[in-house]
Amino acid sequence: MRLARTCRWSLRLLALVYVLALILFAIGWFGLFGADRDPLSAVFLMPLGLPWVLFADFLPEPLWPIAAALAPLLNFALLAALCRWIARRDGAASFERNR
Known about the structure:
- By secondary structure, the chain is mainly α.
- 70% of the residues lie in helices and 0% in strands.
- The chain has helices at 2-30, 45-49, 64-98.
- Helix 1 (2-30) packs antiparallel against helix 3.
């Protein structure tokens, strides 16, 4: 049960960091709030999207920012699936212990 709770909290933390990185990306990419347009605005999204962001090189160059923005969602989906599996496994184990 403790592992499932830890997994859920890490999923929430990843979601929060992703949203913050996406906000910084949008501010830098579109020059919102009077900020200068910055080509390095996706620098915080890159580590969140590894290793999937490395495959963006195979896409046309205009799609690179979109790929950088969406790549962390793959890691989020994988972590969510892993958390569901852990929760199911822990639920079955606790059911067996209570028998």
